[in-house]
Design brief:
about 250 residues, 60s Ribosomal Protein L30, Chain: A, 7 helices
Amino acid sequence: MARRKKRIEHSNPDRWLISYADFITLLFAVFVVLYAISSVNEAKYKIFSDSLSIAFTNQPSTSSTTIIPNKQEQLLKTLVDRRTARLGEQQRKMQERMKAVADGLSQVMATMIGQGMVSVNQTKRGIVIDISASSLFKPGEAVLQPAAAEVLNRVAIVLSREDQPIEVEGHTDDVPISTPLFPSNWELSSARASSVVRMLIDHGVPPQRLSAVGMASNQPVVANDSPEHRAKNRRVSITILTPDTEHIILPATP
């Protein structure tokens, strides 16, 4: 029998197009899925943005035109009002506490206040106790006199019961000083502030609450134009700082 001739298969140069088309279709499907996943619900996003703005600034977002539903607006207003009320209560209690400290200091130092050696004032920054340097130190020295221990002991008794930070500043007049120990008023004022800090620590005030600063003659209370005025500027200021109520952590609203 005659052999059957083999059929000649012709090569198809465009076969790759089938695989390419399948790949493009799958790639298109992947991008569609990614787009669907990443799409943002704009309405919900604006509501969320407004909620944060009202909760933290008590003002609606200026870039949003979405009207928050009444129930959600009432809920946010209630939360803001509660937070404001609690913060106001914290501020009121802190003011009462600082006033009690000021009254206690005025009471224990009433004699020296009457003599004009000490003043106690309450400011926005805190309670400032100005003690005349002449009642604490000899001229040009930074060693506390024995009588100063009694004054600082009374101050320390009151301060040791509190937990606010305390700044001690040394101040001089504008008369220059130049000694081997104190080349200028900067060194003298710093050394005097440090002496008071050490004395307060010895009388029970925790050292982590204290800081000492020398101001030289840069913050006079009156002009340095007479011996009496210069005597007022030579002082040590003890400031009990008022806590920053903006950083008070309020308990969670139930």
